[in-house]
Amino acid sequence: MTSGPGASGTRPLHPPMLTLPALGFGLGLRVPHYEAVLTTRPAVDWFEVLTENYLVPGGRPLHYLMRIRERYPLAMHGVSLSIGSSAPLDREYLRELKALAQRIEPAWISDHLCWTGVAGRNTHDLLPLPYTEEALANVVERVRTVQDFLGRRILLENVSSYVGFRDSGLTEWQFLSEIAARADCLILLDVNNIYVSAINHEFDPLEYLNAIPAQRVQQIHLAGHEDHGTYLVDTHDAAVPDPVWQLYAEAVVRFGPVSTMIERDDHIPPLEELCAELARARALCERTLTQRGPAAGGANGHGSRAADARPRRALLRSRSRRRAGGSS
Within the chain, where are the H helices? Predict the structure, then answer.
């Protein structure tokens, strides 16, 4: 007689967790903060480092990185993988990526679900993909190749977008979830990017959150954006705004205490200011878990939906917005 999980034909109550243990609350490591990190030992649990800044074999950035590595866990975050491109994967970049990972031993490696160039040209931008079966199959094959080469799962981050493709037959959250399942990769969920795209494309950000498989969410990004009235632009150059904090609270209910970091790429303030913002994230996470959940549990349990839909419309602007730029 067959025994064990699934022997009766029923599915397990909860899917298995695939993520690594959470690191806590972190910051992006930026050049102006190198000395302050080493001298003040701020209350930061970990740092995310921009991969491309450290691919050279020596120099000042790598010197500081190796010193900071002795004191804090690190995660690598790149912008050059171009996982959605139709151009061949950059094998030289992959070799440099692997060499850096072997040197600093990051907790994980991430990049963006996008394309950055084709035919040997780099746009230096994170360009969105059409949400089609053809694009999905291409990304899945490339992710598998990268993971085989690196010998580990990678994380893919959702990007913000401003136009859509007429041929898209899937939603963004369906596209991201299906790639994670088929390629067996993990997800870096940028809550600010979800909010920006939700306003620009007029979808419900909670529907996005509730569709993402909790067992694959390894990390969360928080950041700021610019409000242009009829649309938002993801800039990562300002403090996290209130609507993004509200959406983060919903993400905590959905996913639990996932590793979270504040991302600031321009107009970088003093380290103390970012640490204060990070403390707000930590307090909000703890308060939300105490008051509301987690309903989904994230790394510590599994559920199907955020606790309730009360903030659903509060997350979207009360005034009517038109989609910026039409479709492409």
Answer: 34-40, 60-69, 91-104, 133-150, 172-183, 191-201, 205-211, 242-255, 271-292
**Residue 28 neighbours by CB distance under 10 Å:** 21
Rounded Cα distance between 2 and 10, Å, is 13
C-alpha dihedral, 286 to 291 to 297 to 299, nearest 10°: 10
CATH-assigned architecture of domain 25-300: Alpha-Beta Barrel (3.20)
Reading the block at residue 318, the tokens are 């009360």
For the question of whether the overall pTM of this predicted structure is more than 0.90, the answer is no
List CB contacts of 153: < 8 A, sequence separation 6 or more. Answer: 18, 108, 147, 184, 185, 186
How far is Cα 154 from Cα 151, in angstroms, rounded to an integer? Answer: 9
CB 317 within 8 A of CB 199: yes
Using one digit for the tens of pLDDT, what is the confidence trace for 59-110?
A: 999 999 999 999 999 999 999 999 999 999 999 999 999 999 999 999 999 9
Is the alpha carbon torsion for 210, 74, 78, 19 positive or negative? negative
Residue type, 153: R
List 221's β-bridge partners, or say none: 190, 261
Cα–Cα distance measured from residue 276 to residue 224, given in angstroms and rounded to the nearest whole number? 15
